[in-house]
Amino acid sequence: MVCPYRGLSQFNEQDAEFFFGRERFIFGEEQSKTGLLKAVHTQPLVAVIGSSGSGKSSVIAAGLIPQLRLEGNWLIDIFRPTSKPFQKLASALIQWLEPNLSNTGQSIEAGKITKSIIQGHLTLSQVVSDILRINSGKRLLLVIDQFEEIYTLCSSEKQYQFINLLLDAINVGNLALVLALRADFYGYVLSHRPFRDALQRFTPQLLSSMNRKELQSCIEKPLEKSGVSLEAELTQRILDDVGEEPGNLPLLEFALFELWNNQQNGKLTHSIYDKIGGVKKAIANHAEKVYGQLNEIQQKQAQYIFTQLVCPGRGTEDTRRLATRSEIGVENWDLVNHLANYREYSTDYQARLLVTGWDEGKNENTIEIIHEALILEWKRLQAWMTEDRKFRTWQESLRFLIQSWENSGRDKNALLRGLLLVEAKTWLKQRALNISAPEKEFIQKSRQRERLVKYRAAIFGSIVIAFLVLAQRQFEELLFQKRFFDAFFGVPTSSDLIHLLPQALEKADRHVNDKKIDTAIELYKDTLTVAENFIKTVPVEDKELNNEYIKEIIYIQKNIEKSLAKVVKNYYIDIELKPDLNSPPFGKRKGSIKDVRQFENQYM
Prior knowledge:
The chain has 604 residues and is of the alpha/beta class. It has 3 domains: 22-209, Rossmann fold (3-Layer(aba) Sandwich); 293-414, no CATH class; 489-601, no CATH class. It is 57% helix and 8% strand. It has helices spanning 23-27, 36-42, 56-71, 85-97, 103-118, 124-134, 149-153, 156-169, 186-190, 193-201, 212-220, 234-242, 249-261, 270-276, 278-292, 296-308, 325-328, 333-340, 373-377, 379-407, 418-430, 437-488, 500-513, 517-536, 543-572, 578-581; strands spanning 45-50, 74-79, 139-144, 175-182, 205-207, 229-230, 267-268, 310-311, 319-320, 323-324, 354-359, 364-369. Strands 2-3-4-1-5 form a 5-stranded parallel sheet, sandwiched between helices. Helix 24 (517-536) runs antiparallel to helix 25 (543-572). The N and C termini lie far apart (136 Å). The mean pLDDT is 85.
């Protein structure tokens, strides 16, 4: 016998026969003819807004869609945005654009559409118009469930681009766009002016908590065809426990699911209700029971798995998060399968805590918590999140950055730097086991880039220093040349520039070492001229200073003459004459030679 209650799972289209309690929201009041169904027929944009656990997904899938199917002229698809809303949108639309292609062919075409939309070469309006042209006489219903994922899983840039894409498309006729949004994310809508204006123009459908009569319908009507009954006064007791607080609907459904699976002789009883912990404790008790059956290693794995499946709220409540197998880790996947296929009863429905899926874009398994009610009611999970909140908040921020890096084609400029990289290295050191392989790769590549930047900066710094040193040397060389040639041409100059003579001698000696003999000889000769000019500038007022100054110049002159003679001897005198130079005197000095530059011509 099929269980008419869905536990923590949402009601889908095939569960419509068991879906009760939302007739007024779907069909509207008798006299006003308002309601979700009417809104879809009269508005191109319909936002279904309600608190977590109010049943938004179920009322659309099991309430609205079956009614539209009966009309026979609707093309219908429902999807969640996840972190890749453009890809999900294209995958939903391709079935009507290219109905004759294989699954593989449609996947390839959907990828092309995604790329064109992101690059701005194609709009959703154009795609929708093509679909309605191909499917003449049809209307198109696009449902984006859990629209808050746009804000929790996508960057601000992607949020605005995707929402603006949707808002542009609502101007196309015969399109109905339905968005299911958690009420605590409505502030994000208000912060985006075009989105806010659109929802002022097209009235949202606000899904409030059920009243007592509606809740009673949820409890009793699904049993009418089953042959199973409720013990007297049990309905009233359950209703008293549920109250009218928003978010209690999944607690009710799970309690009813537990009651059904513990029924005694076709009857749901007070004793069973007490055993499961009632509406308030049934979910937490079930989670604790499953957790308690795990061994110590599995319990540690479970803590990591569940905290990875919760997205920390930022001014909002925590939300469930769709994770991939690579993020959770292959080593944890056996436990994931156990928690996703957990059966406590021999029924068609599983008492599972997790739900697995498949991401066609990444070609990878996915996993998520079965319902956000588990986050709100399971105290152990709340304690784990309190303990891990700082780390998980940082990790989700890191994933946004990784997504931007991937979207940029892994541009090096999108890698971490500065304080962000310092923070990442700190967390990597502290929580390496809780950071996934893709996240580690991103941090590692950021560190490599940092080292490269530092290396290049060091090289550049060395070059700058070398340049500055070289520039200083060039400046000193230019200053030397100016002062030297001023002295050479007899331009009046300060006597304290006598230090130019040994500098010039040193430069000439270096030319000799570099085999620049002609240049060296010229500089030796020029230096002798400068020495003569310096002697002419000796001050006559101070005789003692005069004598010391001349002595120093003469001493330098002798050193220059020795160096010049050595060069001439080594490079300009034939080898046959060199023995004669060792037997002086080898000639008399010409007294008539006054120019010291004619040094090599001073002998007969």
